[in-house]
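User: I'll paste a sequence; please echo it back and then give the predicted structure.

Assistant: Echoing your sequence first, then the prediction.
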Amino acid sequence: MNRMFLLRVIGICTAIVLALHPGMEFYGDLVRPNFRASDLFSGEIPPEKAKLAAGGVLASVSLDGDLLANYAAALAADVLHRPSTDAAGRASENKAAQSAVVAALKVSPIRPALWLTLGTLQAQAGEAATPAVKMSYLTGSVPIDVAFARVRTVTSGAAATDEEIKLLAQSDIRAALANRSRYEPLLIAAYVQATPQGKALLLDTTKVTDPKFNEILRRY
């Protein structure tokens, strides 16, 4: 009798799970943020907070790599573009966004733009961002907007002192120079805001790749 009762309970639980699964998938499609990590660096507007909250509920129980990555990217974009007005609130939001990004990367680590997102959040919080930035290079290629954002992150922080990152960053700088008409003013702004090591990286790379632009940088 006990065995029959146990089998019935298992059967009922299985039926409930099977019934809930399509509903959860449908709900996931409705609330899934249509926002990727690369969108964060191309000026896309993050989803509204209400949709973020709904996506967070599903992300907390999901193992869907795309859902987790999209939610984490949208949350990070909200923190970076719509920060809290007080320091304590900004710190709390940054930590929450970092936790969401880390959770997504644990499930789906081959996401270079999401690694850069983590590094950007860490840099904003005054934390060491070099390991995350390095992972953004080692896990695959990125669109040009992400590559330029990575140049800005590298040259403005401690990552510019890492010899491996300096070599990897040269390809990002060359990619930006290949689109010089678009990125020239942004590269100049990055140079102005760069650390001494970051300035040296930009000067060393442009000296070989684009000597004329190298002369322009040296005026700043």
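Residues 17-31 have pLDDT under 50 and may be disordered. The longest helix spans residues 2-31.
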